[in-house]
Amino acid sequence: MSTDRRQRHLKILELISTRALHTQEEVAAALAEEGWKVTQSSVSRDIAALRLVKVNGTYRRPVMVARPADDPDLRRIAEALIGVETAGDALVVLRTPPGEASPVGAALDRLSWAGVVGTIAGDDTIFVAVRDAAAQRAMLRELRKIAALR
């Protein structure tokens, strides 16, 4: 996913959490107010990619269908994680909505996964340092399992 698209997705998540946006046109207009040049069709693709749903006529993030085994840390990660990428053999980069990176990073720290050396969390991005490529693959498998619990 391109950096521009990722940033636009983060902006859409921020907008729907702070405003009642009812239509794709309203989402496009809100993005335009923030300086983004988008079409209704690109907003439609973004809404599908983010798996947004309408609740009482306004766009929202989907509610989890299945709850992760009563673990609040797994639940926090499942609810907030919107993107995962690797960087080299020893880094995993996680994306969250604005303001969610620190709580998700803390949840990851509490889980104490084998092979994870540490985390650094910003506003919407978490860098997870892992010991090696095998630990990176293991972490990606675990994150896919957690994401499937949505």
Are there runs of 5+ residues with pLDDT below 50, and where? none
Taking the alpha carbons of the first and last residues, their distance comes to 21 Å
Rough outline: elongated
Count of discrete alpha- or pi-helical segments spanning 4 or more residues: 6
User: What is the number of domains?
Assistant: 2
User: What is the string of helix and strand elements?
Assistant: HHHEEHEEHEEH
Strand order, sheet with most strands: 3-4-6-5
**DSSP helix fraction:** 40-55%
What is the level 1 CATH name of the largest domain?
Alpha Beta
Q: Which secondary structure elements does this structure contain, and how are they paired or packed?
A:
Layout: H1 3-18, H2 24-33, H3 40-50, E1 53-55, E2 58-60, H4 72-80, E3 83-86, E4 91-95, H5 101-111, E5 116-121, E6 125-130, H6 133-148
Concise account of the structure shown:
The protein is an alpha+beta fold and about 150 residues long. It has helices at about 5-20, 25-35, 40-50, 70-80, 100-110, 135-150, and strands spanning about 55, 60, 85, 90-95, 115-120, 125-130.
How would you describe this structure to a colleague?
By secondary structure, the chain is an alpha+beta fold. The protein has helices at residues 3-18, 24-33, 40-50, 72-80, 101-111, 133-148, and strands spanning 53-55, 58-60, 83-86, 91-95, 116-121, 125-130. Strands 3-4-6-5 form a 4-stranded antiparallel beta sheet, with helices on one face. A two-stranded antiparallel sheet has the order 1-2. A hairpin with a 3-residue loop joins strand 5 (116-121) and strand 6.
